Amino acid sequence: MNRLLQDLRIVEFSAFVAAPLGGMTMAQCGAEVIRIDPIGGAIDHNRWPVSDSGASLYWAGLNKAKRSVALALDKPEGRELAQAIATAPGPGGGIVLTNLPPLTGLDYGSLKAKREDVILLRLIGNRDGSAAVDYTVNAASGFPLVTGNSGAGGGGLPVNHVLPAWDIAAGLYLATALLAAERHRARTGAGQEVVAALSDVMLATVGNLGYVGDVHVNGRARPAIGNDLYGSFGRDFATADGRRIIIIALTPRQWRAIGRATGLAEKLAMVGTIMEVDLETETGRYEARDAIAALLARWCAGRTLAEIRDAFSGTGVLWGPFQSFIELVRDDPRCSPQNPLFADVEQPGIGRYPMPGLPLDFTAAPREPTRPAPRLGEHTGQVLSEVLGLSAGEIARLHGAGIAAGPNLA
Amino acid sequence: MNRLLQDLRIVEFSAFVAAPLGGMTMAQCGAEVIRIDPIGGAIDHNRWPVSDSGASLYWAGLNKAKRSVALALDKPEGRELAQAIATAPGPGGGIVLTNLPPLTGLDYGSLKAKREDVILLRLIGNRDGSAAVDYTVNAASGFPLVTGNSGAGGGGLPVNHVLPAWDIAAGLYLATALLAAERHRARTGAGQEVVAALSDVMLATVGNLGYVGDVHVNGRARPAIGNDLYGSFGRDFATADGRRIIIIALTPRQWRAIGRATGLAEKLAMVGTIMEVDLETETGRYEARDAIAALLARWCAGRTLAEIRDAFSGTGVLWGPFQSFIELVRDDPRCSPQNPLFADVEQPGIGRYPMPGLPLDFTAAPREPTRPAPRLGEHTGQVLSEVLGLSAGEIARLHGAGIAAGPNLA
Fold this sequence. Notes:
Two copies of one chain form a homodimer. Chain A has about 400 residues and is of the alpha/beta class.
């Protein structure tokens, strides 16, 4: 949390990762972000991982620092209230972020009719309007067929990523687009609709990394090479105590550091000689990677992780251990309140645990306490009062009529 | 490309993915982005994939629409010129983006001494200043040990992602931070330094998705489950013609669509009965996933990809084929100039091939032609003249003295 964007109000109609992450990033920069959900919650409200009582740690993680409003979005009166909140006046208001199909009254035309300068940021699946999610977009991307040993050795079986990387990229593209569109509005007075397709986020990325050009220009594509680093040296190794580590040499300096820290410099130089490559070049290291790895594998296999950590400490070797989620949380001090990124936070309905804030430190806007996610509907009454100016009586009527819900009913 | 940010000038000292992607995103929104490299190029200049002549398709992909300046950054005079460009006057200037260790004169203090309101955005490895790259951060994240069959069946071997997902997220966080910091400067006159650690980007993401909380609150972590979708139904299947597809059912509607489109609705309902779960719920589908998959596997195995495509067309089934990079480029019309995202572009030194633009459509700032990456040093003379006002004679002297280089010498 910081207060950098405290004059902005963003209304979010969302589920799962992309738009919630985009909105949360704005909330963590101080914007007022109001997520409006149907009463009972959207389709992501119980998404795994969950606590033993069924409360979603995922939902809590992706909706921190927001306000939550629960409305009967299946009824005209509920949608009218949502529209009114989304288009409420004020220079920092009228910004809407969504990755859901638009409901009646919440499409760009309807919102613009209520507020001329509204900004609507909309993530869709495919550009033609058809559905696509991280799983299907990833399958199409080419990456699952070069991940792990999906190549010759693995029988061509695809390996999906577990990190929802396309959704994360899409959410952060939306955050960037939101600030670019708001900047434009602040200068010109003009709102706009901004549309991104999740499949375009994937396609742009595959192209940006050179893999589209590789097929067009070279008529080929990179193979699956396990955990090896494509085009330079990088591989994972087993330690004497059953752990695994990755060692990387992207630069000549990193390469020379490996030789010095392991005492294998002379033998590694001989690898260059026998393989007839220049190990000072990335291409040379890539070509000789199996021979290099043979030496390093034996060195690692004779040492525990702790011994390797000692041997590499301060040497400039670029390396790291593989950690399970449990090892990350229990053993890695970076993943604890020792790191200012984390704070112990009481999450309603779940309990107290370390939650990350924004992974950005703005020196002009100091880090403030991490705020938990709201309970569903926690701010329904407040927002109806503060943003729409409804009276307590009117808000009570809406609750009674099942149009609005607070945290106990939501 | 659009012209949304055409009044901004951003100077980039960068390599590889994160800062180059952040800068390119700004350039594709119309900002003038000047990437300053050492003469001969930075360490990413020949990064794979490359063309047969050794030109990097990766560098071309991540530096589109920028201007390139090549200076002797190992000499004081080269660094002074870089500093002068970075801190040149003008309301949209004085914004510096980097993911490299700061050179003398290019740290925040030195830049601020030249331009009080400078904004420096800096990506580092770890918060303590130690090195970390996508590969090491990913190893620490927990994800490689739940990717693919790295669990029981796979002997606990980690599987790295091939997509540099942490770098991509970091680059887009930097783009968001840049616009947030520039917005703050436009309102207050104050610049600032913004620092992000790549490992914090990873840690925040693992936490946001609920996996840090899962360990703290539940004392457990999700297992490796191959390509299955955690907590609902999703799995990959083989087709009769040797392809593989993924089928997903996150929502009840998607679930019912599978039953209708395959004609297996009644049998799938019986799966719910024999497994004693409610298949309308995500948890029920997850528990019964092997039984569900047994029916769907047989259905898919009896049909070609084309037949499955016909059977699922217009039914609301959420699915997609796995594609290699070659299949993506050759067979998927989304990855071609039929998609407005792509345009055939002549890339100097490589040739003509379809390049993606920005995966965002701003209705108030129409998409403009995709611009290729510069040749290294292509704009050295122009920038020295336009930004610093140097004379042709002085620029010639700098070239002669090996302080500056144009595209032929760079």
